[in-house]
Specification:
elongated; single chain; 2 domains; 5-stranded mixed β-sheet
Length: about 350
């Protein structure tokens, strides 16, 4: 398993119909759909050329795999190309050294029952698609190879039970990955994040390996990695972190905890008793001149050092409410009438 550490496993959120009814026809030569897919991926210039070249180079290899009914070749060609295109269409979760491929079948039978061979994408119901040889779907392996290839698929209908089983198995899965020498926390965090997103979006989940490592045109923000875990939901990182005895806090709270000196403004601000100030802040007082806040005593008082002395000033005062004019005495009309008589 040490070899796996050299590979980059990716998890893609996708629509099964997108593979069957758009990617496959494009792979088989439908240039109109190829252009639509490249436009959807915002491909332009070198990026457009690179992705179009991928279709051109993959097409004959895919045809050979179809003719030979070679499932391994199908993994390395069509399914690998699909993963690369998906990474351009939407962000992928990338794990260095581990993935669904490394979930042990014997130890996690229920969890693995939801991870199907990508050959299921070559089927509609119980039959192979019209353009696919009948025996090919069953010959596609269910796990990634050690070369760029597509791997397991969690179908849309299986994502919810897969996620439920995953959450129930997190502690044991952490032990299993650690025992195999794999990056357990990174893998579990990203697998969990991908499964949750697939559930929320009502989509399927597809694994691949090393399919876009050398793609220099892939947008940087389309690779969600452990090194960029701040892009992952805090709730996901907290859930995974607990398995490893860590408590994850939000970025804002972490910033507050680590912040020793409040940010200082670049220039002095006019002093007002209605404003609030922080240590190190520079102010300009109309009587005492330029000063710097040295200490905040409480929400209403602070110390400010001016050129010649230190003063205690007030802060955070609420503006005085304007006084309402007293209403004039209203005379009773009946009294006026009586006095007039």
């Amino acid at each position: 398993m040490t070899e796996a550490k050299q590979h980059h496993y990716s998890l893609h959120i996708f629509d099964e119909r997108e593979f069957r009814h758009r990617f496959l026809p494009a792979l088989q030569g439908d240039e109109a759909i190829v252009r639509e897919l490249l436009e959807a991926a915002n491909a332009a210039g070198p990026s457009w050329t690179a992705l179009h070249k991928m279709f051109d180079e993959t097409r004959p290899l895919w045809e050979q795999a179809m003719e030979a009914q070679d499932g391994h070749a199908a993994q390395r060609t069509g399914f690998a190309g699909f993963a690369r295109l998906q990474a351009h269409l939407r962000p992928a979760y990338v794990i260095t050294g581990a993935g669904l491929t490394h979930i042990e079948r014997g130890a996690f039978p229920e969890l693995c029952s939801y991870i199907k061979s990508p050959g299921v994408l070559l089927m509609e119901g119980d039959s192979a698609l019209p353009q696919v040889p009948a025996n090919l779907p069953s010959r596609v392996p269910g796990r990634c190879q050690t070369t760029p290839s597509g791997g397991g698929v969690v179908l849309k209908e299986d994502v919810r039970p897969f996620l439920q089983a995953l959450r129930g198995d997190l502690p044991r899965l952490a032990e299993s990955f650690s025992r195999q020498g794999l990056p357990a926390e990174q893998a579990i965090t990203l697998i969990l994040a991908a499964a949750v997103e697939a559930k929320l979006k009502g989509s399927a989940l597809f694994e691949a390996v090393d399919c876009f490592v050398e793609d220099t045109h892939l947008p940087a923000d389309h690779q969600l990695t452990w090194e960029r875990q701040e892009q992952l939901p805090t709730a996901i990182r907290r859930e995974a972190g607990r398995v490893f005895g860590r408590e994850v806090v939000s970025e804002r709270l972490q910033q507050m905890l680590e912040e020793e000196v409040p940010r200082r403004p670049a220039s002095a601000v006019p002093y007002s008793p209605q404003s609030s100030y922080s240590v190190g802040q520079k102010i300009e007082h109309k009587n005492f001149g330029a000063g710097e806040v040295t200490r905040v005593l409480d929400s209403r008082r602070l110390k400010v050092r001016f050129a010649e002395e230190e003063k205690v000033l007030v802060q955070g005062l609420k503006p005085a409410a304007p006084r309402r004019p007293e209403p004039e005495d209203e005379r009773d009309d009946s009294d006026s009438d009586e006095s007039a008589e």
